[in-house]
């Protein structure tokens, strides 16, 4: 079954230009999805909402991303995957325009819903497409390159967004992303080869994967790990403002530090994520949960906050490469179905993290939000253990 999807060997060379176009799309997706993190306070003021409510701009995109990730392989049917990815970029462009012009909270949510469709559809297909663009031995390297877009967005989107939002207003920040997304859409059309579906993988393929105990355990671990990360990350700005006591300039510098640390993670992922990934599976929850605990204990210091944000940011960019490499190795016979389930699990955990974190922030305190994040990380580490129970048995 896997040979019908992994067809890079049918071409004379790996399509690295297409991989780069996907890396730029990742950068724009990450920037668009999490820009409200760096603009949470001014967006709340501008729309007449609380910070906890505005944080749901992330949860609503997560909700639609879950639905899109589960539906895309069925709804898209036998459409060429190249044109499905082009359509996802068009949804992202529409979302940015709606958010930038939103006169009220309801229109903002509609714009974020369109972004959720793009997020779910793109990520559900991304790993399967990478597996078709490059030979099998190059898949981890290509994934690291694609997720390099995440490092770029993490390095520059949040700090630049916070800084420009302070100078010109949060709407102009979203407007500034639109021409880049338009260029990326054209690049997709030019660089991506035709990717016709050779074997449709629908709901039955997803259900078959879920019935595999090792894959189901992996999905639960993914949800706990990502839920922990984004319970904290969604509300990082209120923490830095309320606990660390930073102004917009220092906030921007700290977010830049966190983002630049992502380049370390990208380099490490390309170098060390290969072969057996089992020993690496618990690292994201362990390291990022530990960094969140460090912020809780020492976040009153700007220097300490900067240190723990660097640690968190470096592991954040390794996070996706580690787990998507696990998916490629343990669901290689059904990569689109595996990708759909992975994205649904990740986006559901981001959604729940934003919702629960917002409720804790509004109802208790920012400290309670971060304690919830640490608790989820601890459960994830305990479940994963040495990672062996997450691997496909030999001979299967």
Determine Rg (CA atoms, Å). Answer: 20 Å
Mean pLDDT: 82
Largest sheet: none
CATH superfamily: MFS general substrate transporter like domains
Report the CATH topology name.
Growth Hormone, Chain: A
Low-confidence stretches: 1-12
Gap between N and C termini, in Å?
13 Å
Relative strand content: under 5%
Order of helices and strands: HHHHHHHHHHHHHHHHH
Number of strands: 0
Structural class: mainly alpha
CATH class: Mainly Alpha
Membrane topology: Multi-pass membrane protein
Domain Major facilitator superfamily (MFS) profile: 1-390
Keywords: Cell membrane, Membrane, Transmembrane, Transmembrane helix
Subcellular location: Cell membrane
TL;DR of this structure?
Helices cover 79% and strands 0% of the residues.
Characterization of the model:
The protein has 396 residues and is mainly α. It has one domain: Growth Hormone, Chain: A (Up-down Bundle). The chain is 79% helix and 0% strand. Helix 10 packs across helix 16, helix 11 runs parallel beside helix 14 and helix 13 runs parallel beside helix 15. The chain starts with 15 loop residues before the first helix and ends in a 12-residue tail after the last helix. This is MFS family arabinose efflux permease. Pfam families: MFS_1 (PF07690). It is a multi-pass membrane protein. Keywords: Cell membrane, Membrane, Transmembrane, Transmembrane helix.
